[in-house]
Amino acid sequence: MSKTFTLDGQPIPFSTGQTIIDAALDAGVYIPHLCHHPDYTPHGSCKLCSVIVNGRVCSACTFPAAEGQEVLSHTDELNEDRRRITQMLFVEGNHLCPGCEKSGDCKLQAVGYYLGMHDNHFVHFFSPRKLDASHPDVLLDLNRCIFCTLCVRASREKDGKDVFAISGRGINKHLIANSASGLLKDTDLEASDRAAHICPTGAILIKRTGYTTPIGARDYDHQTIAEVSLERERETHDG
Amino acid sequence: MRPFIQDLAAKHHFQPTRLLEMLREIQARDHHVSNEAVELLAEALRIPRTRLIDAIEFYSFFSSTPKGRYELRISDSITDKMLGKDALIDYLSEKLRVPVGGVRSDGLVSLDNTSCTGMCDQGPAGLVNGHALTRLDRARIDRIAGLIERQVPLAEWPSEFFHAEDNIRKPDLLLGQPIAQGEGLKAAYARGLNQTLAEIDASGLRGRGGAGFKTAAKWRFCAEEAESERYVVCNADEGEPGTFKDRVLLNAFADQVFEGMTLCAAIVGAKHGFLYLRGEYLHLYDKLQTILAHRREAGLLGRGILGRNFDFDIEIRLGAGAYICGEESALIESLEGKSGIPRNRPPYPVTHGYLGKPTVVNNVESFFAAAAIAVHGGAWFAAHGAEKSKGTKILSISGDCARPGIYEYPFGTPARTILDECGAEDVLGAQIGGPSGTFISNREFDRLLAFEDLATGGSFIVFDNRRNILDIARNFTHFFAHESCGFCTPCRVGTSLLRKQLDKIYDGYGSAGDVAALDEICRLVKTYSHCGLGQTAANPVLTTLARYPEAYESRLKKISYEPGFDLDAELETARRLANRSDAAAHLSQTGE
């Protein structure tokens, strides 16, 4: 750990092969992200972790840390643009926070709060999206999917299954389940699978657990996503 | 179905990398890829069915629901539109009684739009079951409709319907003196491979796909990788609207392109090469296979090339309708049988390319030029062109000019010279480098064709003063929204927001704040997108907004806020239900 780069002027040590976001996390610095989780192969699609590396915009979750890099992350400009990117995710899907049982536990919502998002800014798409309630224990609500592929990666990398995939092109992208009928009930997904619990939004929900933790006592009701992320993701990462 | 799929999978050696080829064959036979086909093929290839479903939904030329036995697609490129495409597709729709985007109830024919088919010099153009149709007009459509109604097989259609002219108008350094078969390789071995790489370096050749990375440096990096397996890929996924020079190079000079690939393989130490041919150029496929066969017979491909200890062969892979696959890492994903989603970089293809192995990906024209440089030397090439852009550039010129076609110019040539020579008059502006490039107005014709000024992959579209700037920007903006792969948020959502925002202004529902909002979306898409598609998707709006702000302003309402729709029209259903049409049941738009 002799090598360092600077992040917003602060020296950050890193080891060879580490990405900027991993090194920052180890050093206790939060960089906003949604599609990234240290337990899974980096994806680089949500672009919330965009940082400026030696003057160039890069995704902190996929870009390798290097000696002497100058990285900017928590600038007003970057955080404003991250807010816009978050707003893009909100208007693309159908996110009804007050009625969502994931409210208070949702990373998308928590990032919105963290970035000071007070409205949706852009015109809503109101795209019709499906809901699959066929599985006895797990509900799939595509209205809330943000294509982070964490469920896809968790299923493949941790559960050793291939339950989920993202299909289609452009704005018509959608999550699909791996069964002949296309229904979740015909896949080999079990409620105990990692894939069923990794969703950062309310797209994949465990049935009959919605309000076991009441609103007001949930993760992001008491802590910001920065605090939760540094606490939990460092834990899992070290473990 | 089962025996067909089994045979198909066996023919492709059960290789999931060849998934697109297999899906193409299923689509050609059944005019869709059924659930049953998906299940059987996934089982045969031992891959998740979701990979097949993704590919079917990703590529424009695959369909999960049945298309017509005659699948008609009409090119929606701006040049086709300028040649009257919109009226023609309506006529076709009426004549064949099939809606655009639909299938006729008897299943005989389906009709749809498709992105630029690379026939801009002889449009309006289209595709029927993947085969290119050129010079469409009402008379030709009448005949086509008759052939379809009588269910005449494509093989019996008049060959002139499919005829594609090369239209080489101005040959120069490269097009003027093509090399003889084998000449490049023989010269390279005579000189020595290392010395030949040095010659390519000395030539200053930069990649002709548009990005302009030094070709010799790319080859050297690949050669230096500590891996035994390497690949050479020729990017013939020429999808930039207004570009068709690779089509002509492959039709008229394929031997020289293959020679360039083989030369690259000899230098970097590759055994396998791919020509990734865009699906729209299916008409070239058989001819190219024949040329490859001749090269094998001539000892220029296969085992022991030129009697040396050098084995290399080239496989042709067809795309299936996705502009993004022109991006080199998306192209590699597609070669691996997946949907074309650009990879994260680093690592770059030159170290981690096809199947994770070092891979050189170059444009058709780059290989074509490299083969000539091997014969004539680096100085010959470097003596032409501009300081940072050596040699010549082959352009595809289309739009409002008397002589559309292929032109070769030394880099450093002013736009004005090009416009004069192709017979452009009363010019409003020109789109250099296609939608992802730059729109220059008629006040900028002294600008130079070169990496240091107007970089281009070859698309050069001329617009005269009859044309409307917003029509052009709108066509290009819709194109990008349609072709975004959807991987990253700023491009997936941003290109659609851009389309909506521009349409709002185009349709006359914009107010002053909407232009500022448009500008903001442009900046976000450009700055944060994952790959070149998103990073350039806002260029049509940005370059026209900078030059013709009045074209945008003229469409705006003069009030501070304008809803993006017609308030009164939205009440129509309510009025009908209430059986009212009196004045009080109508609503005037604010500010009117």
What topology does this entry show?
The complex is a heterodimer of chains A (239) and B (592).
Chain A lengths: L2 E5 L2 E5 L5 H7 L23 E4 L2 E4 L10 E3 L3 H17 L14 H8 L16 E2 L5 E4 L8 H8 L6 E4 L6 E4 L26 E3 L12 H4 L2 H14 L1
Parallel strand pairs in A: 1-5
Antiparallel strand pairs in A: 1-2, 3-4, 3-5, 6-7, 7-10, 8-9
Chain B lengths: L1 H10 L7 H12 L4 H11 L3 H10 L11 E6 L2 H5 L2 H12 L5 E2 L5 E6 L11 E3 L2 E3 L4 H12 L18 E3 L12 H9 L1 H11 L11 H10 L6 E6 L8 H8 L1 H15 L3 E6 L7 H13 L15 E6 L9 H8 L23 E5 H13 L1 H5 L9 E8 L5 E6 L4 H7 L5 E6 L5 E4 L17 E6 L4 H15 L5 H18 L5 H17 L3 H6 L1 H9 L1 H5 L13 H4 L1 H7 L14
Parallel strand pairs in B: 1-3, 6-12, 7-8, 7-10, 8-9, 11-15
Antiparallel strand pairs in B: 1-4, 2-3, 4-5, 11-12, 13-14, 13-15
Question: What attributes characterize this protein structure?
Answer:
heterodimer; A: 239 residues; alpha+beta; five-stranded mixed sheet; three-stranded antiparallel sheet; 10 strands; B: alpha/beta
The unreliable regions of chain B are none
Largest sheet of chain A: 5 strands, mixed
Mean pLDDT of chain A: 96
What oligomeric state do these chains adopt?
heterodimer
Please compute the radius of gyration of chain B using only Cα atoms: 25 Å
The largest pleated sheet of chain B is described as:
6 strands, mixed
Strand fraction band of chain B? 5-15%
